[in-house]
Write a structure and sequence with these properties.
Elements: H1 3-22, H2 30-37, H3 43-46, H4 49-52, H5 54-61, E1 68-72, H6 78-87, E2 92-98, H7 99-102, H8 106-117, E3 124-129, E4 140-146, H9 149-156, H10 158-171, E5 172-183, H11 202-211, E6 215-220, E7 245-251
Parallel strand pairs: 1-2, 1-4, 2-3, 4-5
Antiparallel strand pairs: 5-7, 6-7
Helix pairs in contact: 2-5, 2-6, 9-10
């Protein structure tokens, strides 16, 4: 083999390895495409699609018709509504608001109430219970949390985070997935910025979730932003909606 060929082969292998570690993008299914295009979605949600890339996120999570999904700390329900349409009438979406958040955030309570009252989404089941309990009526296929993992640390403490991750593990079917999407903090910062900048070090998330028994099964880099230097609060007008975000897929072993 010539030196040029050897170099080309090495570069090809390196590129393949990088693509595998980052998680190759999966084409959205017709169910996911239809969910994003659903006319009953609030306009405010649609206006955020370019930044939040919902079709790619749901495809990465592997959401499909008939699935049972937990949206943990759903906010105003941006992803909850998408899940509801993507899983269809044979699926179910549990909109889970931790009691610890409900007791201190009227905005979160109002979001939960709006989901429960929205007649366009009949397969959403609102739940309010302690964060570490996750007492569900059935095992689920996907547990999803978006831009909230750092808040569990900030509002509930590290011991509660460990209990939450273990409860998620127990709530999933064997082979089920736990998706964590959050604002990235500076590498090596650990939990330093969770309560101030509302960010968390991705490596800290990996270690904590894997400690509960999960295996890292991929990551999606569609929401990464190299222009974000991780020093601003995520609500800063100069950056809001465009933070550097990581998306991890953890799988419960079969």
């Amino acid at each position: 083999m010539s030196r040029v060929s050897a170099i080309a082969l090495a570069l090809g292998l390196a590129a393949s390895s990088l693509a595998l570690s980052a998680g190759a993008a999966t084409a959205p299914s017709p169910a996911i495409t239809a969910a994003v295009a659903d006319a009953s979605r609030p306009q405010a949600d649609k206006d955020r699609d370019a930044d939040r890339k919902p079709a790619e996120m749901l495809a990465f999570a592997g959401v499909k018709p008939g699935d049972k999904v937990v949206d943990f700390m759903p906010g105003a329900g941006y992803f909850t509504r998408l899940f509801a349409k993507a899983v269809g009438p044979k699926g179910r979406v549990y909109s889970l608001l931790p009691g610890e958040i409900a007791s201190r955030s009227q905005k979160a309570v109002d979001g939960q109430k709006a989901l429960a009252e929205d007649k366009a989404y009949g397969n959403i089941v609102p739940l309010v219970e302690p964060a570490a309990a996750l007492s569900l009526p059935e095992k689920v296929d996907v547990v999803w949390t978006s831009q909230n993992y750092h808040d569990v640390h900030a509002f509930m403490g590290t011991e509660t985070v460990a209990a939450v991750n273990k409860a998620v593990f127990n709530a999933l079917k064997p082979g089920g997935v736990y998706i964590v999407l959050d604002h990235a903090a500076e590498a090596g910062s650990g939990l330093r910025d969770a309560n101030t900048l509302h960010r968390i070090d991705p490596e800290t998330v990996k270690k904590e979730v894997e400690a509960a028994g999960f295996v890292l099964d991929g990551q999606d880099d569609a929401l990464r932003n190299t222009a974000d230097n991780h020093t601003l609060k995520v609500f800063d007008p100069a950056l809001r909606g465009h933070t550097d975000q990581f998306v991890f897929k953890f799988r419960k072993p079969k």
